[in-house]
Amino acid sequence: MAKDFKIAFVASDVPVAQTARAALIQRFGQTDEAEADVIVALGGDGFMLHTLHRTQNLDAPVYGMNRGTVGFLMNEYSESDLMGRLAEAQEEVLNPLSMTAKTVDGKLHKALAINEVSLLRAGPQAAKLKITIDGRLRLAELVCDGALLATPAGSTAYNYSAHGPILPIGSDVLALTAVAAFRPRRWRGALLPKSAEVRFDVLDAKKRPVMADADSLWVENVVWVVIRSEPSIAHRILFDPGHGLEERLIREQFE
Length: 255
Description:
Blueprint lengths: L6 E5 L3 H14 L9 E6 L1 H10 L7 E5 L15 H7 L1 E5 L2 E7 L4 E6 L2 E6 L5 E7 L2 E9 L1 E5 L7 H4 L11 E7 L10 E4 L4 E5 L7 E5 L2 E3 L2 E8 L5 E5 L5 H8 L3
Parallel strand pairs: 1-2, 2-3, 3-17
Antiparallel strand pairs: 4-17, 5-6, 5-16, 7-10, 7-14, 8-9, 8-13, 10-11, 11-12, 13-16, 14-15
């Protein structure tokens, strides 16, 4: 007999997610997040990222059910046998990236990103970026629409759309990818160890403004951005057997 989990149901604002939450609460009850064995998130990938960030200091893992569009981080939605599915679910542990960004007014901004940290031009002219890795200059000038550093979990998102590589879960590798590189035109990015510290300096920041984004948290007019993995923070996410991130990352490459 499946364990009766104490569940906290959360949902995005879209009606289909709110309707699902109401039905599930009526069927399984509702527990406060701080007391729950598991948090069930109803929505899309954006809501899952929001939930993981918001609950990172709680003990309960997060199990998502897709009531959004793509649902790469979500399981299939079903109201039946939820307790059995939770009992059999497999856990993945994700470490986010930490971003520290300095803006033209001298302020420092900090944020965490489960998928990627990206820098994007914020004006009509291409951005000019200098890239330093672990204190060593690697690229003196990258002229581009932007650049990003992606985790394995985020490698199928914006990174893949920018022609970056898909990274296996647990590979301890980060993907550094250019967005529409103009010079060096043939530069396709780099694979870096998870322990690497990556620094972007924005060249001519006033003439060529750049914004930074960490999982949809935007910082405008940055002059430099430092990114590193944050192993002290572990996001626990649950998947149905045979449908975990590793399988999804492999399947994505054959579709």
